[in-house]
Amino acid sequence: MNDRGVDAVRKAVCPGSFDPVTNGHIDIISRASNLFDEVVVAIGVNKAKASARLFTAEERIEMLEKACSDFPNVTVAGFDGLLTTFCEENGIGAIVKGLRAVSDFDYELQMAQMNSSLVDVETVFIPTSPEYSFLASSLVKEVATFGGDVSRLVPPFVLERLTSRLAERAAGGGR
Prior knowledge:
By secondary structure, the chain is of the alpha/beta class. It has six helices and five strands, in the order βαβαβαβαβαα. A five-stranded parallel sheet has the order 3-2-1-4-5, sandwiched between helices. The model has no long low-confidence stretch (mean pLDDT 92).
């Protein structure tokens, strides 16, 4: 342990809802895996928001595990509650957030300051690669819902599950 009470191993968390995981998410996770010894991709499993999600927490975890399988120092976990509590419980000293635009920075800076006021954790901002600067899970879902081509925006196995889930919903099958 160092003087901050954090393991000497440089551990970071990449939090999000990942509903669904996109190539932009994978880009940030990949780059974080080059900066830290261990990266935990933490999926928010807020039960109050479960009905608003396209995929269950278990499905999102499964897709992320597959998407991150090429990164040996990356693991995936679900969490409910405060991210800072998750960090404390897992000896994580850094939160990695991808930034697409200046508007993201305004919100994420406020969140970073709140998090650091709660526990001793740093937030590291990684600018999104230009080819993903517009990419958001919500946009992917919206475009796919109306038949748009999102094949370049998500991994092939996510596209398959996304297309299938949207078809189920369109047919009235729900989840």
